């Protein structure tokens, strides 16, 4: 099968899986809706299902898809940037910065856009801090970037622990839910979806250069790739994608680690296919995980980050033991 035809088949299958996951998210919950009622509500009928779908389930499902796609896209980019197939989008401290910002907003009693606003500011500050410290005297390397990110993440973790210690008891549960990943407050999916589209459109033109970068720094330079500029662009795009996902849904682990790696094993390392495939697969995975999180022990809702971790840990251990 020609590579272009194969790529179209893979993307078509993943797109159908994404639609199936969204359809399941609309129908399944503490109140199971018949397929006919779901279709009627989507067609515009003003029935009971209409309110459940458009006020509760559809915004949450779209936000989950946007966040999952952002995390998987960021993971795919970070794995090329650091030349490590098990790199994670949270490895550079972006999630920690967002956590500090969000918990500070909760501690101060901010409402509305206060929590996501400060979460994004914290993520952006962490991104700029890591990039500035890693760049230093201009000798910017994957190792230096990784070590700087680990140190900044550790510092953010200490600040998060300090905030939880100082927080009043009635606010701790909400803070912990946010830290474990929570889509129940994601009432507006448009920002995450807009950032997802923008990040994918920004990364795809560099797909050929990323294929060369994956072969090594010297090889890419010898073949005419502007490696320093490319690495800066990819770092900024991956960091902003991670910041947008964490701002919307809190810290959700393993999506950005597992999805790109599994797809790379399945379809190869061509970034022209891997990047859009990661978006579709990551979005589908998080939609399914969130649907399960609000259904398994309904009406109690589990943090979606708990389920992604339960899925991701055994998959990670399996991948770790592969040759």
Structural class: mainly alpha
Corresponding CATH architecture: Orthogonal Bundle
Distance between the termini: 27 Å
Please report which band the strand proportion falls in: under 5%, 5-15%, 15-25%, 25-35%, 35-45% or over 45%: under 5%
Share of helix, binned: over 70%
What would the average pLDDT be, to the nearest integer? 84
Count of the domains: 1
Radius of gyration, CA atoms, in whole angstroms: 20 Å
Spans of at least 5 consecutive residues with low confidence: none
Q: What's the overall geometry? A: globular
The major beta sheet can be summarized as:
none
SSE sequence, one letter per element: HHHHHHHHHHHHHH
Number of helices: 14
Could you state the CATH homologous superfamily? ABC transporter involved in vitamin B12 uptake, BtuC
CATH topology descriptor:
ABC transporter involved in vitamin B12 uptake, BtuC
Using the coordinates above, name the CATH class: Mainly Alpha
